[in-house]
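ok so I'm stuck.
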Amino acid sequence: MLTAIDLFSGCGGFSLGASLAGFKIMAAIERDRHACATYKRNLISTDIAADSLIQDDILAVSPKQLLNPRDLALEMWIS
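replied:
not stuck anymore, here's the structure
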């Protein structure tokens, strides 16, 4: 399965489109609390996990926060 990370996710348009195209959304990052609330409301009935949304400034998010710990191939790239 193809995977994607949604940066500056806003209300979730990219996450929704990518999901419909067959991608699994591994993480979405948005700092605005209103946009995060809208993202959750817009995507509640989809297969995108609400816990994939990180509400924080992108500069404060580490690459390790974005990775699935079981994905050893990606883990090697940021070690």
